[in-house]
Write a structure and sequence with these properties.
Blueprint lengths: L1 E5 L6 H10 L3 E6 L17 E5 L5 H7 L5 E4 L6 H6 L1 H17 L6 E7 L11 E2 L10 H16 L2 E6 L1 E3 L10 H11 L2 E4 L5 E6 H13 L1 H4 L3 E4 L5 E3 H11 L4 E4 L12 E2 L2 H4 L9 H11 L12
Parallel strand pairs: 1-2, 1-4, 2-3, 4-5, 5-7, 6-14, 7-11, 8-10, 9-13
Antiparallel strand pairs: 10-12
Length: about 300
């Protein structure tokens, strides 16, 4: 198929694009490539790969590219509550309005697979799993814009949305700010972390299993069409304290302390059921332990000390 991915040079896209090309699809990536780095350099050898330098909010580019695609995957976004708070205008125009503009240009024969965040659940009821039928209560601008974009995709009738758990794992375009990646990095480099509101729970998913979820949604589109699906590890609804305990098994010298005062700016706190997507035949390949071991290998190669003398 011909697949258009906006923001395809990012954390998820840099893992997804090589995989889709391996399967024989023609992949066009619309991205600003603003970092000027080489996350997708290896796939340039593939004649089915077409990079387009531009902004996902450029409607002239959408007019040109959208009609050519069988499948559209809008990944372009400001991801995470802190980044959206830093630039609220870009968050609304990129996370929400650009997706609405893309969807408006699609036909009923095209397939849209869109990633949402399960932070849209906000603060869940204690001990009660959030399902796709649970009320959405986003508490950050990031969550709000993604929920509004999801509504546009589903209302259009030719989309599937995947409500992603907190993603972790190594990727060509690496992110160290995601919770599992961050805590594991701190375990390796600082040997310690101070936790705010350590009882807050959330769900987790490896980046390669996210890609597997997109592959599954494309292959099963006719039966999944028009629905939202939670995508996460059913055995990994963990608090921050429980996550640290997992990491400590891999890094015994790791020390974690819960601060008696202070707040986490990201207030989400919920447990999630992934039964709906599992009932369609999807299952994860990467456990949390396997992902932490992968990160530990990866962190032997990464330096994050640009302005250090050491």
């Amino acid at each position: 198929m011909k697949i258009l991915i906006t923001g395809g040079a990012g954390y998820i896209g840099s893992t997804m694009v090589p995989r889709l090309l391996e399967q024989g699809h023609e992949v066009t990536v619309l991205d600003t490539f603003e970092r000027g780095t080489t996350e997708l350099a290896a796939v340039c050898a593939n004649e089915n790969f077409t990079p387009v330098k531009g902004d996902a909010r450029d409607t002239r580019l959408l007019d040109e590219l959208v009609p050519q695609a069988d499948v559209l995957i809008p990944l372009a976004a400001l991801v995470g509550a802190p980044l959206c708070k830093l630039d609220p205008i870009a968050a609304k125009t990129l996370n929400q309005e650009a997706v609405v503009d893309l969807v408006k240009r699609t036909s009923k024969d095209q397939k849209v697979v869109f990633p949402v965040t399960n932070s849209g659940y906000g603060i869940g009821e204690s001990g009660k799993f959030c399902t796709e039928e649970s009320p959405l209560n986003p508490i950050s601008l990031y969550g709000i814009t993604k929920v509004e974009a999801e509504k546009a995709v589903l209302d259009n009738g030719n989309g599937v949305t995947l409500r992603l758990a907190t993603v972790f794992g190594m990727a060509p375009r690496m992110r160290l700010d995601l919770l599992v990646n961050d805590f594991t990095w701190r375990a390796v480099t600082d040997r310690a972390v101070v936790i705010f509101e350590g009882h807050f729970k959330r769900n987790y998913i490896h980046v390669r299993d996210v890609v597997k979820g997109f592959e599954h949604a494309i292959a099963s589109f006719d039966t999944m069409r028009g629905e939202a699906y939670n995508l996460g590890l059913s055995d990994a609804n963990l608090s921050k304290i429980e996550l640290c305990q997992k990491i400590q098994k891999h890094v015994p010298s790791f020390v974690y302390l819960e601060a008696p005062i202070g707040e986490d700016p990201d207030k989400r706190d919920y447990i999630v059921s992934n039964e709906k997507v599992e009932a369609t035949g999807w299952s994860p390949d990467w456990s949390l332990d396997r992902g932490i071991a992968e990160l530990l290998r990866g962190y032997k190669m990464i330096r994050n000390s640009r302005y250090s003398n050491v």
